[in-house]
Specification:
This protein has helices spanning about 30-50, 60-80, 100-115, 130-155, 160-180; strands at about 15-20, 25, 125, 190. It is mostly helical and about 200 residues long. The protein has a single domain (about 25-85, about 95-190), classed as Cobalamin adenosyltransferase-like (Hypothetical Protein Ta1238, Chain: A), CATH 1.20.1200. The radius of gyration is 19 Å and the shape is globular.
């Protein structure tokens, strides 16, 4: 259980931060970088959720809005996972870790939403509708969080499901961008070399 009764502690004034296991690292080191990007992703999805609230009469918007809220909760699980180094000895209390079931759920959502989309013959430009544009921002933040987590994975042992989750999540967000662009009808296709003449 988390209890926050004091917001500032001054313990990070020297540029360090505390991890869940009590150890301290530099705020710019790979672990805080990874879970910091996950936090940024979660915040960006809060804006997407707010935007989806504007269309509460549309069942698909309601469904996607509820999915976004579930993902935001998963991202707090992921932040807890990434902020807790894997112990070298048996833990008294097992750390919260992203589970394969969470990845599987994302894959099922990708398959469900992608089944109604026309296959692409070109990359698409971020945009279309307001909510799709915001979701494209979240997608790119998810990719950065994935890169940051990959860097962490190259230096320390982590729960591999956390990296897989981010990879699948960015794919889901891309599919949802298209769904929210009228199932791809309002996608803006990239035309290679369009402005080179």
């Amino acid at each position: 259980m988390v209890k926050l009764n004091k917001i500032y502690t001054r313990t990070g004034d020297n540029g360090s931060t505390g991890l869940t296991d009590g150890s301290r690292v530099a705020k710019h080191s790979p672990r805080p970088q990874a879970y910091g990007s996950v936090d940024e992703l979660n915040s960006s999805l809060g804006l997407v959720y707010f935007c989806l609230n504007k269309n509460d009469a549309d069942n698909q918007y309601i469904e996607i809005k509820n999915l976004i809220k579930e993902i935001q909760n998963d991202l707090f699980d992921l932040g807890a996972d990434l902020s807790t180094p894997i112990a070298k000895t048996k833990e008294k209390y097992p750390a919260l870790r992203i589970q394969k079931a969470q990845v599987d759920k994302i894959e099922k959502k990708i398959d469900k939403y992608n089944s109604n989309l026309t296959p692409l013959n070109s990359f698409i430009l971020p945009g279309g509708s307001e909510v799709s544009s915001l979701l494209h921002m979240s997608r790119t933040i998810a990719r950065r969080a994935e890169r940051d987590t990959s860097l962490l994975c190259s230096e320390e042992t982590i729960n591999t499901q956390s990296l897989i989750y981010l990879n699948r999540l960015s794919d889901l967000l891309f599919v949802l961008c298209r769904v929210l662009n009228e199932n791809g009808l309002n996608d803006i296709l990239w035309i290679p070399g369009l402005n080179q003449d």
